[in-house]
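Would you be willing to look carefully at the protein I have copied below?

:::
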Amino acid sequence: MPEPVPATPQLLRRVSAGAVLEFMRASEAVTVTDVMAATGLTRATTIAVCEDLVRRGWILELENQREFGGYLKGRPARRFELNERAGVVLGMDIGYSKVTVVVSDLRGTTLGRSSRPFQAGEVGSQERIAFIDGVAMAALRSAGTEPERVLAACAGVAAPVDRHGEVVATQEFWGLFDLGLRPALKAARGWTVLLENDANLAALGDRWQGAAAGVDDVVVILASERLGSGIVEGGRLVHGTRGSAGELAYLNLVEGVGDTYGIAHLARTWAAETLDTAAPTALRAFQPGRVEAEQVFAAAGQGDAVALDILDRLADRMARVVGTVATMLNPELVVLGGGVADSAHVLLAPISERLAGYTATPARVAASPLGDAIVTVGAVRCALDYVEKNSLDLVLAGRAAPA
């Protein structure tokens, strides 16, 4: 067991500054009393931290305070707010065939975005890094800001990532994401890059702004092309010893599942298989081999028998998946996320109806409202958490480091 870190004055200052910034990120103008109530800090510590953060440029002290009331011993209360444009963070979703980068201010508001398909083929790490860097620079241009203002970036990849930010490259596909991205962007741009599994970031993102907001025990399943999950237990993200907590390869052994293909992939595949038969269906209006999941869901909504059968098969399969997760992890909530989440709403009731047959501890099931932005939302949150925890070590662009 590691030795506890001593509570030095520097550590206490760092923790206090992070707590104040976290509170201000989700708040408008606040008084010292507001900050004290939210963080548990004493008045003297709160004032000292706020004044330090003002000097460093992280927060602003507001004027015209008498208009807002809040007096202390005859004096108007001091009011502060986050300097949301003090810098930016990047949230990256690095897939096998597409890269998306979002630029966010310090409140988590999106300022710019770029998403580009990538023809992977037989290219090396340097080519992939150059491509990712190009998408990031395009996102910064769309936000009207400069690379020097990036305080941190977080990148989600479709591979396990351990607690130290290293890709677990024990499978060939996972090895494709072991690029050396962090040192490369540090050398090229000076950025601190955090690496995390994409499903873990989906869990962070949905718990921040999605269906799991405020839920401490939740599993978020990325369910579009392949199934992968992120686990939050007791309010903390679970990694496991080598970053593989939440990997769903065991589904190969589950009766009625047998692999990790997701809802979009299976809806498309099963629709194509049906079109090879003589079954009458509205899906024939679409080009063979091009029927997408959304079209299957739309046809089912119009009562098409073939599409309804596909949805029934999907519901049973996903009930088995959710049932195994509920049995092993006992979460309060299981969220289906990814690009297919909007369409997956129609699966929620039939999944829930079947759950009691697959587990003694059914969880609530929901679909994330974040769509295919769920990973970048989580990546932005991860980057903001880093910035808040390390604010005393970061120097904002155009400002000198405090003495």
Notes: The first helix runs from residue 9 to 25.
